[in-house]
Amino acid sequence: MTEQEIARINELYHKSKAEGLTEDEKLEQADLRIRYIESIRKNLKENLKSVRILEPDGTVTDMKKVIEGKERGRH
């Protein structure tokens, strides 16, 4: 997601509060929001892949393996 797309999301939000949006702008806003959420999820998943959890029994759970295992199970 680019800075311009984020700026456009904010612009559409402010316009919706001030004067309302056209149907085309509503569709554009919905599309941008979906893409923004997908971007956040992708970023979070990548960050979680670097997390390691120390379990109470002393073992270490590598979240990268957990995430990749779940992704393989979906396909």
Written account of the structure:
With 75 residues, the chain is mainly α. It has one domain. It has three helices and two strands. The protein has helices spanning 3-18, 23-48, 63-74, and strands at 52-54, 60-62. The chain has a two-stranded antiparallel ribbon with strand order 1-2. Helix 1 crosses helix 2.
Low-pLDDT runs of 5+ residues are none
Q: Tell me the β content.
A: 5-15%
Number of structural units classed as domains:
1
The DSSP helix count reads 3
Count of DSSP strands? 2
Helix fraction bin: over 70%
Quote the distance from N terminus to C terminus: 26 Å
Report Rg. 19 Å
Based on secondary structure, the structural category is mainly alpha
Mean pLDDT: 93
The main β sheet shows up as:
2 strands, antiparallel
What general form does the structure show? elongated
Strand arrangement within the widest β-sheet reads 1-2
What order do the SSEs take from the amino end to the carboxyl end, as H and E?
A: HHEEH
